[in-house]
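Take a look at the protein record below and tell me what you see:
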Amino acid sequence: MTAPALVLSGLTIRDRSGTALVSDIDLTLASGSVLLLIGETGSGKSLIAQAVMGLLPGAVRIAGGSLHFDIDEGRKHNLLNGLDEIGLTLDQKAPAIEAYEAKLAQREWA
């Protein structure tokens, strides 16, 4: 049996004041599958995707649970190493692009 490509377990995302924006999300995605998050405005779809990609805005943080992905068999990825194999499209693209560029700049100096 192949290991899942993505596992979220109890993922909770909070803002600076401690308010839960996303609570206790469990998700397992098989290798080679595609996931489409659909929901009402403000339901947390973008925050979940941004958490997976390591692109959460500065005002929010992962406050609980775990996030793990293993894209190639036997090769573990951290959030930035898997970006070439994960895609994200947001309604407001500019903040996401700025966050991605900032993460890349940090990676170049690490």
Remarks:
- DSSP finds two helices and three strands in the chain.
- Helices lie at 45-53, 93-109.
- The longest helix spans residues 93-109.
